[in-house]
Write a structure and sequence with these properties.
Shape of chain A: elongated
Radius of gyration of chain A: 28 Å
Order of helices and strands of chain A: HHHHH
Number of domains of chain B: 1
Number of helices of chain A: 5
Largest sheet of chain B: none
Helix content of chain A: over 70%
Distance between the termini of chain B: 24 Å
Number of strands of chain B: 0
Oligomer: heterodimer
Strand content of chain B: under 5%
Shape of chain B: elongated
Radius of gyration of chain B: 19 Å
Strand content of chain A: under 5%
Structural class of chain B: mainly alpha
Chain lengths: 137, 84
Protein backbone atom coordinates (compact mmCIF):
# COMPACT_ATOMS: atom_id res chain seq x y z
CA UNK A 1 0.00 0.00 0.00
CA UNK A 2 1.38 3.44 -0.95
CA UNK A 3 1.84 6.24 1.57
CA UNK A 4 -1.04 8.26 0.07
CA UNK A 5 -3.45 5.35 0.31
CA UNK A 6 -2.35 4.77 3.88
CA UNK A 7 -3.16 8.37 4.82
CA UNK A 8 -6.56 8.21 3.07
CA UNK A 9 -7.51 5.12 5.07
CA UNK A 10 -6.39 6.86 8.27
CA UNK A 11 -8.51 9.96 7.42
CA UNK A 12 -11.57 7.82 6.72
CA UNK A 13 -11.16 6.00 10.03
CA UNK A 14 -10.73 9.33 11.91
CA UNK A 15 -13.88 10.82 10.36
CA UNK A 16 -15.81 7.65 11.19
CA UNK A 17 -14.68 7.98 14.81
CA UNK A 18 -15.78 11.67 14.88
CA UNK A 19 -19.15 10.78 13.38
CA UNK A 20 -19.60 8.04 15.96
CA UNK A 21 -18.77 10.54 18.70
CA UNK A 22 -21.35 13.04 17.36
CA UNK A 23 -23.95 10.28 17.29
CA UNK A 24 -23.17 9.32 20.90
CA UNK A 25 -23.36 12.97 22.05
CA UNK A 26 -26.71 13.49 20.32
CA UNK A 27 -28.06 10.28 21.85
CA UNK A 28 -26.99 11.39 25.32
CA UNK A 29 -28.36 14.93 24.86
CA UNK A 30 -31.73 13.79 23.52
CA UNK A 31 -32.11 11.36 26.40
CA UNK A 32 -30.94 13.51 29.31
CA UNK A 33 -31.60 17.19 28.57
CA UNK A 34 -35.43 17.09 28.27
CA UNK A 35 -35.59 14.80 31.34
CA UNK A 36 -33.39 17.16 33.32
CA UNK A 37 -35.45 20.21 32.29
CA UNK A 38 -38.66 18.42 33.26
CA UNK A 39 -37.26 17.59 36.67
CA UNK A 40 -36.17 21.22 37.20
CA UNK A 41 -39.66 22.37 36.19
CA UNK A 42 -41.26 19.99 38.70
CA UNK A 43 -38.93 21.17 41.46
CA UNK A 44 -39.45 24.89 40.76
CA UNK A 45 -43.22 24.97 40.38
CA UNK A 46 -44.62 22.56 42.94
CA UNK A 47 -48.04 23.63 44.28
CA UNK A 48 -46.91 23.60 47.91
CA UNK A 49 -43.86 25.73 47.23
CA UNK A 50 -45.85 28.32 45.27
CA UNK A 51 -48.44 28.56 48.02
CA UNK A 52 -45.85 28.77 50.80
CA UNK A 53 -43.96 31.47 48.91
CA UNK A 54 -47.16 33.45 48.34
CA UNK A 55 -47.97 33.31 52.03
CA UNK A 56 -44.43 34.38 52.93
CA UNK A 57 -44.66 37.40 50.59
CA UNK A 58 -48.06 38.41 52.01
CA UNK A 59 -46.72 38.03 55.56
CA UNK A 60 -43.72 40.20 54.70
CA UNK A 61 -45.98 42.91 53.28
CA UNK A 62 -48.42 42.78 56.20
CA UNK A 63 -45.68 42.94 58.80
CA UNK A 64 -44.40 46.18 57.28
CA UNK A 65 -47.82 47.76 57.00
CA UNK A 66 -48.59 46.71 60.58
CA UNK A 67 -45.34 48.32 61.71
CA UNK A 68 -46.57 51.66 60.32
CA UNK A 69 -44.97 51.87 56.90
CA UNK A 70 -47.07 53.40 54.11
CA UNK A 71 -48.54 50.94 51.62
CA UNK A 72 -46.60 52.20 48.61
CA UNK A 73 -43.22 51.84 50.28
CA UNK A 74 -44.20 48.45 51.73
CA UNK A 75 -45.19 47.29 48.25
CA UNK A 76 -41.87 48.43 46.78
CA UNK A 77 -39.95 46.53 49.44
CA UNK A 78 -42.16 43.48 48.95
CA UNK A 79 -41.32 43.56 45.23
CA UNK A 80 -37.63 43.61 46.08
CA UNK A 81 -38.08 40.82 48.61
CA UNK A 82 -39.89 38.75 46.00
CA UNK A 83 -37.26 39.41 43.32
CA UNK A 84 -34.47 38.32 45.61
CA UNK A 85 -36.12 35.23 47.02
CA UNK A 86 -38.19 33.82 44.16
CA UNK A 87 -36.57 30.96 42.21
CA UNK A 88 -36.80 32.93 38.96
CA UNK A 89 -35.25 35.97 40.58
CA UNK A 90 -32.42 33.88 41.97
CA UNK A 91 -31.72 32.31 38.58
CA UNK A 92 -31.75 35.77 36.94
CA UNK A 93 -29.45 37.13 39.62
CA UNK A 94 -26.97 34.29 39.26
CA UNK A 95 -26.94 34.65 35.47
CA UNK A 96 -26.87 38.44 35.63
CA UNK A 97 -24.08 38.64 38.23
CA UNK A 98 -21.91 36.15 36.38
CA UNK A 99 -22.32 38.24 33.22
CA UNK A 100 -23.70 35.21 31.44
CA UNK A 101 -21.87 32.68 29.36
CA UNK A 102 -19.67 34.55 26.98
CA UNK A 103 -20.62 33.26 23.53
CA UNK A 104 -18.59 34.78 20.74
CA UNK A 105 -17.18 37.45 23.05
CA UNK A 106 -20.49 39.23 23.64
CA UNK A 107 -20.48 39.28 27.44
CA UNK A 108 -21.17 42.11 29.89
CA UNK A 109 -17.65 43.43 29.88
CA UNK A 110 -17.04 46.29 32.23
CA UNK A 111 -20.51 45.95 33.75
CA UNK A 112 -20.76 47.27 37.27
CA UNK A 113 -23.60 45.78 39.25
CA UNK A 114 -25.57 47.37 42.08
CA UNK A 115 -23.33 45.54 44.56
CA UNK A 116 -20.31 47.50 43.32
CA UNK A 117 -22.19 50.77 43.71
CA UNK A 118 -23.30 49.76 47.22
CA UNK A 119 -19.70 48.89 48.04
CA UNK A 120 -18.51 52.30 46.83
CA UNK A 121 -21.21 54.01 48.88
CA UNK A 122 -20.25 52.09 52.03
CA UNK A 123 -16.55 52.82 51.45
CA UNK A 124 -17.31 56.53 51.04
CA UNK A 125 -19.37 56.61 54.25
CA UNK A 126 -16.67 54.82 56.24
CA UNK A 127 -14.00 57.22 54.97
CA UNK A 128 -16.14 60.21 55.93
CA UNK A 129 -16.71 58.79 59.40
CA UNK A 130 -12.99 58.15 59.92
CA UNK A 131 -12.14 61.66 58.69
CA UNK A 132 -14.71 63.16 61.10
CA UNK A 133 -13.29 61.13 63.99
CA UNK A 134 -9.78 62.40 63.26
CA UNK A 135 -11.06 65.99 63.10
CA UNK A 136 -12.81 65.60 66.47
CA UNK A 137 -9.66 64.28 68.11
CA UNK B 1 -21.96 14.16 1.61
CA UNK B 2 -21.59 14.88 5.32
CA UNK B 3 -19.53 12.55 7.51
CA UNK B 4 -22.18 12.62 10.24
CA UNK B 5 -24.16 9.38 10.01
CA UNK B 6 -27.81 9.57 9.03
CA UNK B 7 -28.76 7.99 12.37
CA UNK B 8 -27.28 10.97 14.23
CA UNK B 9 -28.85 13.58 11.93
CA UNK B 10 -32.22 11.87 12.28
CA UNK B 11 -32.12 12.51 16.04
CA UNK B 12 -31.91 16.31 15.71
CA UNK B 13 -35.57 17.07 14.79
CA UNK B 14 -36.74 14.77 17.59
CA UNK B 15 -34.52 16.56 20.06
CA UNK B 16 -35.74 19.98 18.91
CA UNK B 17 -39.38 18.91 19.19
CA UNK B 18 -38.80 17.51 22.69
CA UNK B 19 -37.07 20.73 23.74
CA UNK B 20 -39.94 22.83 22.38
CA UNK B 21 -42.47 20.73 24.29
CA UNK B 22 -40.34 20.98 27.44
CA UNK B 23 -40.18 24.77 27.07
CA UNK B 24 -43.95 24.92 26.60
CA UNK B 25 -44.49 22.79 29.69
CA UNK B 26 -42.10 25.07 31.63
CA UNK B 27 -44.11 28.12 30.57
CA UNK B 28 -47.44 26.48 31.44
CA UNK B 29 -46.18 25.43 34.87
CA UNK B 30 -44.81 28.93 35.53
CA UNK B 31 -48.22 30.40 34.71
CA UNK B 32 -49.98 27.92 36.99
CA UNK B 33 -47.47 28.60 39.76
CA UNK B 34 -48.03 32.37 39.42
CA UNK B 35 -51.79 31.80 39.72
CA UNK B 36 -51.29 29.81 42.93
CA UNK B 37 -48.95 32.47 44.26
CA UNK B 38 -51.55 35.19 43.60
CA UNK B 39 -54.24 33.18 45.36
CA UNK B 40 -51.95 32.58 48.36
CA UNK B 41 -51.06 36.27 48.58
CA UNK B 42 -54.71 37.24 48.57
CA UNK B 43 -55.38 34.60 51.20
CA UNK B 44 -52.53 36.12 53.21
CA UNK B 45 -54.25 39.50 53.27
CA UNK B 46 -52.99 41.38 50.19
CA UNK B 47 -55.30 43.26 47.85
CA UNK B 48 -56.20 41.65 44.50
CA UNK B 49 -54.44 44.42 42.57
CA UNK B 50 -51.14 44.11 44.44
CA UNK B 51 -51.23 40.31 44.35
CA UNK B 52 -51.83 40.39 40.58
CA UNK B 53 -48.93 42.78 40.00
CA UNK B 54 -46.56 40.67 42.07
CA UNK B 55 -47.74 37.43 40.44
CA UNK B 56 -47.15 38.93 36.99
CA UNK B 57 -43.67 39.94 38.04
CA UNK B 58 -43.04 36.44 39.38
CA UNK B 59 -44.18 34.90 36.08
CA UNK B 60 -41.99 37.30 34.10
CA UNK B 61 -38.93 36.19 36.05
CA UNK B 62 -39.26 32.79 34.35
CA UNK B 63 -39.28 34.22 30.84
CA UNK B 64 -37.19 31.81 28.77
CA UNK B 65 -36.25 34.63 26.41
CA UNK B 66 -34.86 36.73 29.25
CA UNK B 67 -33.10 33.78 30.84
CA UNK B 68 -31.38 32.97 27.55
CA UNK B 69 -30.55 36.66 27.17
CA UNK B 70 -28.91 36.69 30.58
CA UNK B 71 -27.05 33.47 29.85
CA UNK B 72 -25.59 34.75 26.61
CA UNK B 73 -25.08 38.26 27.95
CA UNK B 74 -27.23 40.00 25.34
CA UNK B 75 -30.89 40.30 24.41
CA UNK B 76 -32.30 37.16 22.86
CA UNK B 77 -33.85 37.49 19.43
CA UNK B 78 -34.82 34.51 17.35
CA UNK B 79 -33.50 36.41 14.32
CA UNK B 80 -29.96 36.17 15.72
CA UNK B 81 -30.08 32.43 14.99
CA UNK B 82 -31.37 32.87 11.47
CA UNK B 83 -28.76 34.46 9.22
CA UNK B 84 -31.24 35.64 6.54
Amino acid sequence: MSKDEDETVKDVLDSKNDAQEVKEILEAVSATVPKLLNEITEALFSAEKSEAFGMAVAKFYKSMVDAGMNEERAFELTEKFMDSSSPGGMISKVLGDSGGINIGGHGHHGHRGSHDKDGDEIEKKIKEKIARKFEDE
Amino acid sequence: MSDIPLGAIARVPGLVIRLVFTAMRFKRRAKKSAKMLRRAMMKGGMSREMASQLAARYEESFSIRELIGKTTGEEFHLSSFIPF
